[in-house]
Design goal:
globular; alpha+beta; three-stranded antiparallel β-sheet; binds zinc ion; 8 strands; single chain; Muramoyl-pentapeptide Carboxypeptidase, domain 2
Length: 286
């Protein structure tokens, strides 16, 4: 029977192409689930965002099959647990003892049409301290060495701000500054007199290091800002306030900064370089 089947060169070519496509696709699939050591695991989407936003600082992602744990190995040798297995953390536990998965567990709503922040929805306030230490400096001294000057609003201010140059954070702030510098006068008043960038300090009322400690955050004009602690009477009835124009927010977001004005515990002067929230697939673009 087979003898009678004539396979034309055209059909042969067609099947070769299909076969090749199948081989390529299965190799890609295999690569995705067996990164490092041949252990079967799939890198979660949020971890992919972190890998892509901090490429230079992450050496590899490994899977410990016996413990069923994913670990992120940083370039400085530190290893950071992706998921500690605790899925029922309270809000305070999320802030005080997060794993890397918790850090990206709340989606940041990029753009002008952000929803009114729901209770305790503070995307970006959850930070794994050791991760930031690995990227930006382990203590005050090492962060200091990583600081460089950003010329703030070259045409309208010229003030020199200290910002961390690791992960191109200072470059990103310079780009923000150059764009803000072209804004009309009525918008410049919000950003001309800024409240500060680098300061090694703990977050008010907590034991956690502020993003300002790593030189990756900037507070704009305090005069037009709102901070939840200034308004609070009872946390259960936290009223939302904001006066910062969204045009300013858009410029910061374009260069990888999140805004504290999109947090339930709002801090509308605060912008923080957190590129992981803008790296697909996690970013929520509107
Ligand atoms: Zn701040």
């Amino acid at each position: 029977m087979l003898k009678n089947v004539k396979v034309s060169s055209e059909v042969f070519r067609k099947y070769s192409i299909i076969l090749l496509a199948v081989i390529i696709l299965s190799s890609l699939l295999l690569y995705n689930v067996t990164c490092n050591g041949g252990n079967d695991f799939v890198i979660p989407d949020q971890l992919k965002s972190i890998k892509s936003a901090y490429k230079k600082y992450i050496k590899e992602v490994i899977f410990n099959k016996a413990a069923s744990q994913i670990k992120v190995i940083m370039r400085d040798g530190r290893d950071i647990l992706w998921d500690d297995g605790k899925s029922d953390k309270s809000f305070n536990e999320l802030l005080n003892m997060p794993d890397l998965e918790d850090q990206l567990s709340m989606a940041y709503p990029r753009g002008r049409n952000y929803p009114y922040p729901k209770v305790n929805h503070d995307p970006g306030r959850i930070r794994v301290q050791n991760f930031f230490k690995s990227v930006y400096g382990i203590d005050r001294e090492s962060v200091n060495k990583n600081l460089t000057e950003v010329i703030w609003l070259p045409k309208h201010s010229g003030k020199r701000l200290l910002f961390n140059y690791q992960n191109e954070a200072a470059d990103a702030l310079q780009k923000v500054s150059d764009e803000l510098d072209r804004l009309p006068e009525e918008l410049l008043k919000y950003v001309k007199d800024i409240a500060g960038t680098f300061k090694w300090r703990k977050i008010k009322g907590t034991d956690r290091l502020s993003a300002h400690s790593f030189g990756i955050a900037i507070d704009i004009n305090i005069k037009y800002s709102h901070y939840w602690r200034w308004n609070i009477k009872k946390e259960s009835t936290l009223p939302y306030h904001n006066k910062i124009p969204l045009k300013i927010v858009e410029i910061f977001e374009k260069h990888g900064f999140i805004w504290g004005g999109k947090w339930y515990h709002y801090d509308t002067m605060h912008f923080e370089f957190r590129p992981e929230f803008f790296h697909s697939p996690h970013s929520m673009k509107k």
